[in-house]
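Input/output pair, single chain:
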Amino acid sequence: MKTKEITNLYHTGNYDRLSIEIVEAKGCRLFDSDGKEYIDALGGIAVNSLGYGHPVYVNAIKEQASRFIHLSNYFYTKPQSQLSELLCTLSNLDKVFFCNSGAEANEAAIKLTRLYQAKNNKPECELIFFENAFHGRTLANLAMGQDKHRQGFAPFPPGFNKAIFNDINSVKELINKNTGGIFCEPVQGEGGVSLARKEFLLELRKTCDENNILLIFDEVQSGNGRTGKYFAYEHFGVSPDILTTAKGLGAGFPIGAMMAKESIAQVFTHGTHGSTFGGNALACSVGFAVAKEISRPEFLQNVKENGEHFISQLNEKLKGNPKVKEIRGIGLFIGVELNEGAGPVMLNMLEKGVICSATAQNVIRFVPPLIITKNEIEQVVDSLVSCLN
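Output:
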């Protein structure tokens, strides 16, 4: 049997797969079993930050795998200490907890928030989140998710209250004596590449400070250079108490991280939380090499410039197109909102050799590898223009 047939026979049916088999990848290009070439403007859903076959990534895997891949968190390892120091420096936070995914990082942030508030006279800690958010697929994260992801999985853990994104009054109306944390994505990816307004985040920070509430930024998708800064919150001049990330941190290797201020993180004492695979040597070696590469000023400047070029090309070539409602984004985190469903457009682009995604029903999302070139960007834009025409 062919790969597709075997997968469909044995794997659960929870993924709506495209009818192609990828057999090779290099740079920002993918190649299928029929020899067709694609420009990857999806990047494994904002994961493959260094594209495919990047020597920094490959060498980190080879070098650490030749020593040891996994021990346990009973031991100290140099890869974990190196990545811990680098992430705390980049985030301006003090402590880090490693796990395997964004969902786990957010789960850790929920637990840390509740434990911290339980020790500060809020034993029934509630959290506020925002409409159109996506924080992961664990039950606690689904309690902060969109209705389409929640169907059939009730009951959900209590203590989560939904506010309106970019509406500070909706937040203030929900605050009560038990409110202990506010979860916010500076850029909502699954919500259609929607950016928080600077004044909203400033008011959010002020509101948290006035009410002994922790501000948690979910940068699972927007972090690790995606926006032209290492973390998206740097664009807004607003610092969180807790920060989560994953996806691009490992550039394809599974790793997640939660960072927090010392005064908050200290409640995570022995036995309060843990992860068997979290922070293992191979994951941290890869994460350190990738973060070190991406955090270089020259690398981030290139992401910024290419993101501006991408949006400029979209604005120029789609100006006046009646099918386009809005073009928005920051860095290489870009969404084109259409006046029609995005799914058929995405499939049309796939036929033309460009891989992207459709999200929030009518938004074409571009989150390519951060090494994409201006020439490749122009090919992606031309493909979209062709499909919309």
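The chain has two domains: 3-54+297-388, 68-294. The chain has a mean pLDDT of 97.
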